[in-house]
C-alpha cells in the first residue's frame, strides 16, 4: 500500500503546494507529483545574478488585502512596497508612460488629453460587466470609446500586456468581471527574500516526487481509487486527485483521462486563453533612469513593461558596488517575436529601447549600453511544463453554450474524485496571479474536506 494516498496533488506550483500543505497538516496522507526537477512552477528564482534573489516568474504581491499578503505578514516575511497598481491616481509619481513611436517619456500623472481619454476608458471598463456582447474585444471597445489611435499601443502596454496577451484577445465582458473583483488596497509589494520563502514554508514537510510527469488519470467509476500514471510508467493511487497543471498543459493534452473529460470541461479549456511571457533581466553599474522612476509602460515598443530594482529597495552589501537592475517583462505577441531572436539580439533590443527612453545629450544618448554589465533571460514559453505565461480574460464566442464562466467550469470537480486548482480556475479571486492560485489551493482544500472527511482517511499501519 506504499503507493496509495488519500490525495495526490499534480503540480508543485503555489496552488498545489498550498493545497497539499493544508491537507497534510490536517493528517491526510498526501503526495505531490511534479514533472520538473524543482518545485515552484511559475514562481522561480535565481540567486546568483545579483546579491539579492531575482524572480524569474511571479514577482509582485498585487494588493494589501490578499491571502499572499496576509501569509507574508503572519510568517514575518520581509516586504517592501513598489509602484502602485492604481496607475492613474497614485500618490507616488513613480510610473512613466513611453510612446515608442514619438520617443516620448511622460510621467503618468502628467498625461496629456489623449492619454486621459485612454485612462477614462480603462478605469470605467468594469462598467461593461453587463455588456450582453461577450464577443467584443478590448481593441474594438477602445475604438468605440473614441480612444485616439496614437495611444492604442499604450493601452496594449498598460492593460493587455499585464494580462500577458494582446488587445484584440481580451474579452471586454470578462475583463470587466476581473476588474470588479475585490481588491481594496491597490499597492504592490515584493518579498525581500523572494517567493522561495513561501515555497519552503509549504513544502518543508510535504512528500514530493520530482521528475514525475503525469501522463494518465483513471477515475473509472466502479474503482474506489484513482490511478495516476507517469510518462515513465510509474503508478500511484489515491482516494482523490487534484490537478493544478498550467492551462496550456491541459490544452495540449499532455494528460489523458479515463473516462474522457466531460464536454463542458473541454470547451472551458479551449475557451480560456493563455499566451506567452518572458523576462529579460539586465544589470547596470549606474542608475541611468530618472530618480523616482520605478515602472515604465511602453507603447509601440518591443519591451512593453519595464521595472527597476536594486537600491534603495535592496540592502547594500559591504565592499560590493551597487547593482542596478531593469526587468523587461514581455508578453503576448511581443514575447513570441523576442523569443525567436538570438540571445545577442534579445539583449540588444532591450538596451536599444532603454537608450531611446533615457538617452539625453547630457548622458551621451546611450546610457544603458554604456553602463551595462550582464543579463539573463527566462522564457516561460520554453519551459516544457508551462509553455506560456498565464490565463487572461478571454473572448467568449457566441457558440459558447454555457451560462457559467469558463473558469468556473474549469474549477468544477468531476465525479467527486478529480479536483481542479491553479490560477486559471480562480473564480472569486484574481485570475492569473500568485494570490489567485493560492486561493484556488484553499478552495480545493475546502472541497476535499467535505468530499473526504478526515474520518475516511486511509488508516496508517499501527505502530509495532
Ligand atoms: C513571467 C511571469 C511573471 C509573473 N508575475 C506575477 C506577479 O508579479 N504577481 C503575481 O501575482 N503573479 C505573477 N505571475 C503569475 C503567477 O506566477 C502564476 O499565476 C502562479 O505562480 C501559478 O501558480 P499555479 O500553481 O496555478 O501553476 P504553476 O506554478 O504553473 O504550477 C503548476 C505545476 O504543474 C507542473 N506540471 C505541468 N505538467 C505536469 C505534469 N504532466 N505532471 C506533473 N506536473 C506537471 C508544472 O511544472 C508546474 O510546476 C507571473 C507569471 C509569469 C510567467
UniProtKB/TrEMBL annotation:
Signal peptide: none annotated. It holds the Pfam family Amino_oxidase. Residues 14-444 form the Amine oxidase domain. One of its GO terms (cellular component) is phagocytic vesicle. It comes from the Eukaryota. InterPro entries: Amino_oxidase, FAD/NAD-bd_sf, Flavin_monoamine_oxidase. GO terms for molecular function: oxidoreductase activity. PANTHER family: AMINE OXIDASE DOMAIN-CONTAINING PROTEIN, FLAVIN MONOAMINE OXIDASE. This is Amine oxidase domain-containing protein. The lineage of its organism: Eukaryota, Amoebozoa, Evosea, Eumycetozoa, Dictyostelia.
